[in-house]
Design brief:
Distance between the termini: 32 Å
Number of strands: 10
Order of helices and strands: HEEEEEEEEEE
Number of domains: 1
Number of helices: 1
Radius of gyration: 19 Å
Strand order of the largest sheet: 1-2-3-4-9
Length: about 140
């Protein structure tokens, strides 16, 4: 299918498609006293506590359960904050390269992880562990809209 699209584009029959570059994360100040605990129908559960003052993480405890497949756990004591702007970034102290990132969009504050397989049991389940999202007004779980 990609070859057909390329041939049509080269003949001028279809506009050349190039994906748009990713949108940069907006530099928004973050202040949050957040707690989100919820369980989905498929058994996915999360419990996340995040306290941020002036883009500095004061408290963080995050546990994700992926049904009966496994779980991931993150505690602030295991990380050092390395960035405050344009988003918050924390790096694992153990040298594993695990990163936690926090950023604010208009309707939610997102807590996400990257390269954190060693924080999950069994290893490799981390790609099924979704970010936690907080409502910036209430501190509770953000609705997925």
């Amino acid at each position: 299918m990609a070859l057909a699209g390329a041939l049509l584009a080269s003949c001028g029959l279809m506009p050349d498609f190039r994906p748009a570059p990713p949108t940069p994360i907006a530099d928004r100040g973050i202040d949050l006293d957040g707690y989100c605990a919820q369980t989905e129908e498929d058994g996915f559960r999360e419990r996340a506590r995040l306290l941020v003052r002036d883009n500095r993480v004061q408290a963080l405890s995050w546990e994700i359960t992926i049904g009966r497949k496994g779980s991931c756990r993150f505690e602030l004591a295991e990380f050092s904050q390395t960035k405050t702007r344009p988003h918050i970034e924390l790096l694992a102290r153990d040298g594993s390269g695990c990163r936690l990132m926090v950023w604010q969009e208009p309707r939610r504050i997102t807590l996400a992880h990257s390269n954190c397989a060693n924080r999950c049991v069994p290893r490799g389940i981390d790609d099924q562990a979704w970010p936690a999202m907080f409502d910036p007004r209430t501190g509770g779980c953000a609705r997925n809209l």
